[in-house]
C-alpha cells in the first residue's frame, strides 16, 4: 500500500478525475481541500510512521489551501522522519504576484523536507503550449503531471 496526499483544489480534482481509477497499484488517497469539506487529519501521519509505506505529496501551489497545508504537512512528515516525494505546480504569471510569492515560499519549504521533488511550472507550459485552446492545453499539461505521479507508484 502507498499513500497519495493531494492538496489544493487543482490537485484534488486532477487526482479524483484522472488518477484514482487508473493507478495500477494499491493506493490510499488523502484529499486536502476544505472546499470539498476535507481537512488535515493527522492520524495519517501515525499510519505512515508505523507502516513505512511509500508517501507521495501532490500540491497545486499558489492558492491558500495548497500552499499552507502542503508546507505544514511536509514539515510534519519530515519531523516524524517519514520520507516522501513531492510533485508541485507553480502558478501562471497572470495569476499575480501574491499567488507566485506564496507558491515560491511553499516550494522552498517543501523542497527542504521532501526526499525528491518534481516541479511543473505552469508559466513555462504556457510559453510552450499557450497557443492551444484552454481545454487541450490543460489536457497536455495535466497528462504530463499525472504520468509523473504514476511513475512513483510502480
Ligand atoms: N495544471 C493544472 N493546474 C491547476 C488546475 N486547477 C488549478 N490549477 C492551478 O493550481 C494553482 C492553485 O490553485 P488551487 O489548487 O485552486 O488553489 P487552492 O490550494 O485550492 O487555493 P484556495 O482555493 O485559495 O484555498 C493555480 O496556479 C491554478 O492555476 C488543473 O486542473 N490543472
Ligand atoms: Mg481551492
Strands, count: 5
Average pLDDT over all residues: 94
β-sheet strand percentage: 15-25%
Q: Percent range for helical residues? A: 40-55%
H/E element string? EHEHEHEHEHH
Characterize the main sheet: 5 strands, parallel
Bound molecules: guanosine-5'-triphosphate, magnesium ion
The DSSP helix count reads 6
| Low-pLDDT sequence parts | none
Question: Keyphrases for this structure?
Answer:
5-stranded parallel beta sheet; 6 helices; 154 residues; Rossmann fold; binds guanosine-5'-triphosphate; alpha/beta; globular; binds magnesium ion
Describe this structure in words.
The chain has about 150 residues and is α/β, with parallel strands linked by helices. It has a single domain (about 1-150), classed as 3-Layer(aba) Sandwich (Rossmann fold). The protein contains 6 helices and 5 strands; from the N terminus they run βαβαβαβαβαα. Helix 3 (about 65-80) runs parallel beside helix 4 (about 95-110). About 35% of the residues are buried. The mean pLDDT is about 95. Magnesium ion binds near residues 9, 33, 35, 63 and 65.
Summarize the structure.
The protein contains six helices and five strands.
Task: Show the helix and strand layout.
Layout: E1 2-7, H1 9-19, E2 27-32, H2 43-51, E3 55-60, H3 64-79, E4 85-90, H4 97-111, E5 116-121, H5 122-129, H6 134-151
Parallel strand pairs: 1-2, 1-3, 3-4, 4-5
Helix pairs in contact: 3-4
The chain binds guanosine-5'-triphosphate and magnesium ion.
Residues 8-9, 33, 35, 63, 65 line the site of magnesium ion.
Amino acid at each position: 500500500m502507498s499513500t497519495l496526499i493531494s492538496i489544493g483544489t487543482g490537485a484534488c480534482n486532477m487526482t479524483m478525475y484522472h488518477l484514482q481509477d487508473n493507478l495500477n497499484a494499491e493506493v490510499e488517497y488523502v484529499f486536502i481541500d476544505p472546499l470539498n469539506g476535507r481537512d488535515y487529519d493527522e492520524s495519517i501521519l501515525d499510519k505512515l510512521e508505523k507502516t513505512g509505506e511509500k508517501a507521495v505529496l501532490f500540491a497545486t501551489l499558489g492558492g491558500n489551501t495548497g500552499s499552507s497545508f502542503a508546507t505544514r504537512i511536509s514539515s510534519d512528515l519530515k519531523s516524524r522522519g517519514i520520507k516522501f516525494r513531492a510533485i508541485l505546480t507553480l502558478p501562471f504569471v497572470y495569476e499575480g504576484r501574491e499567488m507566485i510569492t506564496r507558491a515560491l515560499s511553499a516550494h522552498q519549504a517543501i523542497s527542504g523536507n521532501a526526499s525528491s521533488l518534481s516541479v511543473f511550472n505552469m508559466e513555462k507550459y504556457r510559453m510552450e503550449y499557450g497557443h492551444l485552446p484552454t481545454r487541450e492545453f490543460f489536457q497536455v499539461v495535466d497528462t504530463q503531471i499525472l504520468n509523473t505521479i504514476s511513475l512513483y507508484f510502480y
